[in-house]
Every structure is written in C-alpha cells, then in structure tokens.
Write a structure and sequence with these properties.
This protein is mainly β. It has one helix spanning 55-65, and strands at 2-7, 11-18, 22-26, 29-37, 43-50, 52-53, 75-81, 108-110, 119-121, 127-129, 138-142, 146-149, 154-162, 174-186, 191-199. Strands 4, 5, 10, 11, 12 and 15 form a six-stranded antiparallel sheet that branches. Strands 6, 7, 8, 9, 13 and 14 form a six-stranded antiparallel sheet that branches. A three-stranded antiparallel sheet has the order 1-2-3, with no helix packed on it. A hairpin with a 5-residue loop joins β4 (29-37) and β5. The longest helix has 11 residues, at 55-65.
C-alpha cells in the first residue's frame, strides 16, 4: 500500500508503508541560523528562523530529483524586511513574483545591504544517518555562512532562498522564506552571517 502526504506549511512528504508496517517519511524542511556582528566583528545577537518551503520550491525539488527538470546549481539568499508595524505573513503559494508588499499583505524583500545582488550560497556535501530496521534516518545539507553587509538603519524580519541573483527581481524559483520570532534592528556597518540547513 502506498500513501502520499504533503504539508502545505513546511514539508514535502511521501509516506510508504512496506511489508509488515514498516513506514518511512521524507520531508523537506529548513532553518536559517543568523549571527549579527557589529563593524568591529563583535557578536551583537544570534537567532534562528524556521522557514516555510513554498509550493514552487517543493515542485522544483521533485521535478529535479524524480522528474526531468534541469538542476539549479547555484542558489541565492536574500533578506526579508520589516515595514512599519506590519508583521510579515508567509503563504505556501508565495513566489518571487507574488508575495505581497510587506506593508499590508505578505512580506517584502530588504535591499538594505551592500551590492545589487542577492548573495550566492555554497552548500557542503549532503549526509544522512540514523534509522535502521523499520525506522527512518534523517538527512541534511548545510551551507557556508553567507555575509550581508548592512548599509542602512533598518529592521530585518527574516531571510529567503531562491534561484535568482539580481536583488528584488521577480523571476525564478523561490524555495523558502521565513522570519525571526521577533524582528531585529540593524545599523549600517553591521554584518549578518546567515547559514541555511536543509533537512529531510
């Protein structure tokens, strides 16, 4: 018997029941770990973001791994802005072209860092461990830290991962986005070091 389950909030899952009740679930989730350093390299704060893997990101993952889609070999990270008192809201239907304005709906991308591009992400080797007879293991792949040089006084809500380099463009696949529990104030000269961990 075979069953398939998709969680629209944060996971992409396939559950297979084999033999005498042996089950395994594969899910696509992720986490952004962020450190903020001041201009002298001193740690100001650190936090983590549990992200939302959106529908187009899930479809891209399945298309590359099980279908005939072309693999994207370079991914890019951006930042999510906190605008006024509005709290960013994420949806499984978000794309780079459609995710609201961050003022009254959805969320907005921040441009308050040096350069005109999102920052390229380099991933290490994927690994999996654990599990055994009748139980599933877990897998993960971790990026090297991505450095954003903040160039304005602003409030950062979170981060995003996508396929497109040029900052604030609306083409390409959005994989994930998410916010801190509480938005963080930054100033010019601060550095945000962001690491992304994808898990299954």
């Amino acid at each position: 018997m075979h069953s398939e389950k998709v969680d629209a909030q944060d996971s992409l899952g396939a559950t297979a029941l084999l033999g005498a009740g042996v089950g395994e679930q594969v899910s696509a989730t992720g986490r952004y770990d962020v450190k903020c350093l001041d201009a002298d390299g001193n740690l100001k704060w650190e936090d983590s973001i549990e992200n939302l893997v959106v529908n187009v990101g899930k479809a891209d993952l399945l298309g590359v791994y099980l279908g005939a889609s072309t693999q994207t070999t370079t991914w890019y990270m951006g930042l999510v802005s906190k605008v006024g008192s509005f709290v960013p809201v994420y949806s499984s239907t978000d794309t780079l072209a459609s995710h609201g304005d961050g003022v009254s709906t959805g969320w907005a991308e921040s441009t308050a860092y040096s350069g005109s591009d999102r920052i390229a992400v380099t991933f290490g080797a994927a690994s999996a461990s654990g599990g055994g007879a009748g139980s599933a293991g877990t897998g993960s792949i971790v990026s090297s830290p991505v450095t954003f040089i903040i160039n304005a006084t602003t409030t950062i809500a979170g981060a995003l991962l996508c396929q497109t380099q040029t900052r604030a463009t609306t083409t390409g696949v959005l994989y994930s986005a998410g916010s801190f529990a509480t938005a963080r104030d930054v100033i010019a000269g601060d550095q945000l070091l962001v690491t992304y961990t994808a898990q299954s």
